[in-house]
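Researcher: Good morning. I'm working through a list of sequences from a screen, and I'd like to move beyond sequence-only analysis. For each chain I'm collecting a predicted structure so we can compare shapes side by side. This is the next one on the list. No need for commentary yet; just the structure.
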Amino acid sequence: MDHFNMFWSGRTQESQTPEVDENGRAKYTPDFITELAEDEIFVFGSNLSGMHGGGAAALAYRRFGAIWGQGVGLQGQSYGIPTMHGGVENIKPYVDEFINFAKTHPELRFLVTKIGCGIAGFREEEIAPLFADALPVKNIILPRSFVVIIGE
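Model: Good morning. Structure tokens for this chain:
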């Protein structure tokens, strides 16, 4: 099954038991997210115009409350970070804004997807370092590959 259909099938990837934190919750963002706990927010790569037509943005729109026409910020149980408007230097301010937002909302748990690494075409090695300041933030959960690239 291809990546796009995996999102819509409602299935989760069969894999090893995820690593968990001291509260028994996933330590890293799962590769495929099909449901969220009440306090969880799906963080996805978007475009500035909020046209959530493909990839994780489409999932955010169809399942987690992303608003058509809103490309940035909290939307239902999702948070958009624009990745389709230029290079990494154009994405960084939005990542910084997200990290600051998460710090002011400790009651929420933010599951960051591999933003920018799908339709936007960036490599994980380009995007992961933008999240270095998120490592010590307890309520921001990153993909394992981002944490490895940044360095635990």
